[in-house]
Amino acid sequence: MGPGASWEKALAKALKKLSMPSVQAAFEYTGNPAHGDYATNIAMRLAPQLKRAPIVIAQEIAEALQADSQICRVVDKVEVVPPGFINVFLSPAGLQSNISTILSAGADFGRSISKSQKLKVQIEFISANPTGPLTLANGRGGFLGDCLSNVLGAAGYGVTREYYVNDAGEQVRKLGWSVLAVLGHETPYRQEELYQGDYIKVLAKKLKRGIKKTDAKTADIIAKDAAKILLADIKRAVKKAGITFDVWFSERKMRRGGLVDETLKVLKRKKLVEEKEGALWLKAQDLGESKDKVLIKSSGDPTYLLPDLAYHWNKLKVRKFNTVIDIVGADHHGHMQALKAGLKALGLKQPDVILVQLVRLIEKGQEVKMSKRAGTFVTLEELLDAVGSDVARWFFLQSSPTSHMDFDLGLARQHSDKNPVYYVQYAHARIASILRKARDAFAEPHRTKTQNHAELLTHPNEIALMKQLIKLPDLIIRTSKNYEVHHLTTYAKELATAFHTFYRDCHVISEDKELTSSRLALCRATQIALTNTLRLMGISAPEKM
Questions:
Q1: How far apart, in Å, are the Cα atoms of 327 and each of 117, 391, 539?
Q2: CATH of the domain at 18
C-alpha cells in the first residue's frame, strides 16, 4: 500500500479522534516540492459543516497526524498553509525504508490483497461483430480493456474478461449475402449495403463449393460458416496482440437458450413494450429518454438493444457480477443510454461505461482513410506487424479514451528514445546491464537479503527516484477506481526519467562497497517498479536492447 492510501487511513483515524465528520478525501501528489510531496484540502471541505475557519481545522488535523506513530516514521513534517491546505513532506528515512519493502515484495510490489475488494468484476471489450477482421480502431478498446483488467486484478478484484460475439442477427445474415454477391448471385441488398473488401473475396473462395441455389436459407448457412472463419481470425489477432479473454459469449447460443425471449416477456409484464408501425418498441420515454427505442423490427429481427439487455441480465442476474464494465466506441453513446434505461426498468444495476473515441492513423503527416464497410481499413494485425505489440499498446494507452487520438505511424516505427516505449524499456535494460556488471565485479552477488545500506541514499537524485518508486501502489488503487489507465504511461516515463537522471549523476559501482550496495539496491527496486508497471500495460521489460 502506498503512502497516499496509508495517510488516508491515518486521516480517517484523526477525524474520528477529533470527532469531526467522516469525509471522503485524498492526499494528492503535489508535483511541487515547495508544497510538500502530498497534500489534502480536507479542511476546506469540512469548513462549511463545522462552521469554522479551514485554517484552524487544518491545524488540528495536522497535529493529530503528527501524533500518529505510523506517520511519524515516514514524514519529515506536516505543514498547514492558507487557506487550509495540509502539506506533507516525506522524510529521507521513510523513503529509504521502502527499498527493502520493494525488494521483498518483488513481482507483488504495488498489488493489493485487501479482502474487502474481492468483488466480481466483468469487463467486456472489443466485441466487434464477426463480419470482418479486427481493425486498427479495435486495438484502442482492446488494449484498454486488457490493461484495465490487469490493474483491477492487481487491486484485488476478481476479474472476468469477456468478448461478446454478435454471431446472430441481420449483420451476420448480410455477411452471407455479401459472399454470395461476390460469387455473382442476386441479393436483396443494394451493393453499397453489403460488406466489401478482399477478405470477402477470400471467404467466397473458401465457401463457394456446394452452393446450388440462392435463397435466404443458403445465405444463412454461408453467413454462419463465414462468421466462424472470421471469429477464428479475430481470435488469432487477439492472441497476437497479447490480449486474453476468459469468456467468448455467443449471442446465438444466448438466443437459443431463450433468455432474449424471457427478457422481452419481463418488459411486457412491466407494460414497457408497445407495438406500432409493425414493430415492437421499448417505451423509453417513460424511462426518461427523449424517444422510444425499437426492440424488434417489422422484419421480426431484434435490434441490438433487446439481445444486449438479455446479455446484461445474464451478467448481473445470472452470473451475479458486482460490477460490469462495458468498453465501447463513442458511436455507441445513444445505444448505451437506451441500454441503461432498459436495465433500470428491469431493476438491474447500471454498468460502468467507457466510451472510446475515434483513432486517426497518420503517416507522413497525412491521414490514412479507413472504412470497414468499404473494405478500406488497416487491420490490427497489419499494425502489429508494422510496429509490434509493445509499441501499439503504449501508443493506444497513453491517451485518455475520452479524447480523439492520432496514431503517428512514423514515430511508432522509430527505434530511438523519441519513441516513449523504447525510452522506458531502455531504462529497464540499462538497470539489467548494471546488475550484470555487478555480478561480474563481485564474488558474492548482491541479493535482496544482504545489507542494503539504504541510509546512504541521500543524493537529491536518489531521493527523487525513491519518491517516484513509492507512487505505484497508490496509482494502482486509484486507477482501479477511476479506470484512467493512461496515467500508467505517464508514471512509467517519469520513473524512467528519474532513473536516467540518477544514473547520470550517481556512479553506481565504485570502490565504496557500502555505497555500491545501496545504489544497487535502489537499481533493483527501480527495476521491480518498472517491470511491474510495464506488466500492467502488457508491455515487455527487456533485459537487453
A1: 22, 21, 21
A2: 3.30.1360.70
Q: Determine how many CB atoms are found less than 10 A away from the CB of residue 472.
A: 25
**pLDDT of residue 19 exceeding 50:** yes
Q: Taking the CA atoms of the chain, what radius of gyration do you get in angstroms?
A: 28
Q: Which of 90, 123, 154 is the last residue of a domain?
A: 90
How many helices (DSSP H) and strands (DSSP E) are in the chain?
21, 15
- Cα separation values, 487 from 15, 100, 482, Å: 30, 26, 11
Beta strands in 415-519 (DSSP E): none
Model pTM score: 0.92
The answer to whether the CB of 526 falls within 8 A of the CB of 98 is no
pLDDT tens profile 88-125? 999 999 899 999 999 999 999 999 866 556 789 999 99
202-252 tens-digit pLDDT? 999 999 887 777 888 999 999 999 999 999 999 999 999 999 999 999 999
Whether the Cβ atoms of residue 487 and residue 536 lie closer than 8 Å to each other: no
pLDDT tens-digit series, residues 319-375 = 999 999 999 999 999 999 999 999 999 999 999 999 999 898 888 888 876 554 444
Sign of torsion over alpha carbons 488, 490, 495, 499: positive
- Separation of CA 173 from chain center: 33
282-317 per-position pLDDT tens digit: 998 988 888 999 999 998 899 999 999 999 999 999
List the CATH number of the domain containing 513: 1.10.730.10
Is 346 part of any domain?
no
- Which of the listed residues 75, 90, 105 is the one where a domain comes to its end? 90
In a domain, 316, yes or no: no
Task: Give the domain extent around 58.
Answer: 3-90
| CA–CA distance, 189 with 136 (Å, rounded to integer) | 28
Side-chain-side CA neighbours of 190 within 13 Å: the count stands at 2
Structural domain total, the chain? 2
Give the Cα separation of 463 and 469 in Å (integer): 10
**How is the beta sheet containing 323-329 ordered, strand by strand?**
247-250, 158-165, 120-124, 323-329, 352-356
| Cβ 306 vs Cβ 264: under 8 Å | yes
Query: How many residues are listed for the chain in this entry?
Result: 545
Domain-located, residue 188: no
- Closest by Cα among 154, 158, 156, 151 to 115: 156
Please check whether residue 83 lies inside any domain of the structure: yes
